[in-house]
Amino acid sequence: MIQNARPTVLAAENVKMTFNAHTPDELTAISNIGFELKQGEILGIVGPSGCGKTTLFNVIAGLLVPTAGTILVNGKRVQDANGHVGYMLQKDLLLPWRNVIDNVILGLQVRGVSARESLEIAHSLIDAYGLKGFEQTYPSALSGGMRQRVAFMRTLAFSPDVILLDEPFSALDSQTRLLLQADVMRIIRERNCSVVLVTHDVGEAITMCDRIVVITSRPGRVKSVHTIGIEPALRHPLKIRKQPRFNELYDTIWDELGIQFAA
């Protein structure tokens, strides 16, 4: 399908976020941010440290109301689109006193979904995505990668229109990180999810995303947008690094970030 033919699921329109406005401590974290997320697309957001990525994430999630501009989810302001945005953070935030299946159904319970339907959804996800047999296991007995899978399934369970991923693999060792990147990409493609991935890892963004938005240093603004343009069959975390387009994008985006290393 042609990218532009997909419907827009999320739109950021001239978003600005200023903290402590009209005081000596006034700080503008992001300014004039604008982009669109299409149905079934994975959109990456990268930028130098302190550029406002976390602030932007919180605005998109509806956790912060922007000073100016709007975030629209299927045409509604995100503040009015209750339950339409799900997010997964760096920490899995699993409840230690709840086993795997009870953690997966947590969001469904909060939304008042019946116990029967919640368990059907949870079992379907657990069976499909590699944790069958661990339903009664508690988080303390799970590996880091398994805990992140549970957190991701908890986000998927209520089928949000938009999924936000904030550095979801940063706490994992490199091997587990690559395996989980591949697994999460597969799940996203299978379910035709619309995803915003916020990451410091340029290679991860190129691997997982269809397009990447590069943000400037503070106040964060959109500096450029890159279309990845690598066919799905070559998007495995290991295979993609052998593609000339990967190296071309990697060098270009690092140059745009303007990060200098000591000699």
What can you see in these coordinates?
The structure is a single chain. The protein is α/β, with parallel strands linked by helices and 263 residues long. The chain has helices spanning 53-60, 100-104, 106-110, 115-128, 144-156, 174-191, 202-208, 244-257, and strands at residues 8-19, 27-38, 42-46, 68-73, 76-77, 85-88, 162-166, 195-198, 211-215, 222-227. A six-stranded mixed sheet has the order 6-7-8-3-9-10, sandwiched between helices. The chain has a four-stranded antiparallel sheet with strand order 2-1-4-5, with helices on one face. A hairpin with a 6-residue loop joins strand 9 (211-215) and strand 10. The radius of gyration is 19 Å and the shape is globular.
Task: Briefly characterize the structure.
With 263 residues, the protein is an alpha/beta fold. It contains eight helices and ten strands.
Strand line-up across the major sheet: 6-7-8-3-9-10
The helix content, as a percent range, equals: 25-40%
Arithmetic mean pLDDT: 89
Number of strands: 10
Compute the CA-based radius of gyration: 19 Å
Strand content: 15-25%
Q: Please provide the ordered H/E string of secondary-structure elements.
A: EEEHEEEHHHHEHEHEEH
Cα-to-Cα separation, first versus last residue:
46 Å
What's the structural blueprint in terms of helices and strands?
Blueprint: E1 8-19, E2 27-38, E3 42-46, H1 53-60, E4 68-73, E5 76-77, E6 85-88, H2 100-104, H3 106-110, H4 115-128, H5 144-156, E7 162-166, H6 174-191, E8 195-198, H7 202-208, E9 211-215, E10 222-227, H8 244-257
Parallel strand pairs: 3-8, 3-9, 6-7, 7-8
Antiparallel strand pairs: 1-2, 1-4, 4-5, 9-10
